[in-house]
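Figure 3 (text version): structure tokens given as input.
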């Protein structure tokens, strides 16, 4: 059983839109979570979005469900989209 760590994350786009999502990874490492958040934002063509350490913080730990576990194993992290995120 691998325990993963969830970082509650908010980003603001250049147009002022707020995105709320979780970055989930196997290490309790805020800098890695922040880097993965920026990587994901760039992958959805929002590389200009701003995310800071104050807006990417440890929330809790859990045993990741299978779909999230697969993303972590493949990419090193998973994104759980919440408010304002593209589908």
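Below: residues designed for each position.
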């Amino acid at each position: 059983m691998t325990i993963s760590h969830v970082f509650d994350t908010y980003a603001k786009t250049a147009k002022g839109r707020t995105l709320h999502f979780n970055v989930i990874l196997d290490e309790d490492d805020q800098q890695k979570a922040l880097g993965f958040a920026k990587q994901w934002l760039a992958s959805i063509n929002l590389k200009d979005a701003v995310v800071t350490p104050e807006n990417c913080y440890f929330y809790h730990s859990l045993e990741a469900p299978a779909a999230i576990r697969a993303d972590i194993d493949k990419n090193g992290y998973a994104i759980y989209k919440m408010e304002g995120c593209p589908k």
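The chain has one domain: 3-81.
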